[in-house]
Amino acid sequence: MTEEASYKELLKERQDLEQRIQEARRREFAKALSQVRELVSEFDMSPQDVFPGGRASRGAAAGGNSAAANAGQKVPPKYRDPQTGKTWTGRGKPPLWIQGQDREQFAI
User: Fold this and answer.
1) By the 8 A CB rule, do 100 and 72 touch?
2) Is the pTM of this model over 0.70?
3) Distance (Å, whole) CA 44 – CA 9
4) What is the CB neighbour count within 10 angstroms for residue 64?
5) CA torsion sign, 48 to 89 to 105 to 31?
6) pLDDT tens-place string over residues 26-59
């Protein structure tokens, strides 16, 4: 065998590396999310405390309270899946992780 890796070997290495990267990201994401949740809970923070100046606050600051003024603006989420961190605004079709369950347990 030569010292240079073949194309197939390199593709396999890349696939293995991508899998390791995804696993490391999942681990570190879970750890970071846990730390953030702990701090948010400890200091009783709201989404506006953590993310000041979001779209919702800009619309209110501009005095736009009509439906036309708010059309197309992003709505802050009302529910969060504690396992994945995914959120839902409460509008439209409910995601699978909240369907058929008491929504109060997912409230933000």
Assistant:
1) no
2) no
3) 51
4) 14
5) negative
6) 999 999 999 999 999 999 998 888 888 765 544 4
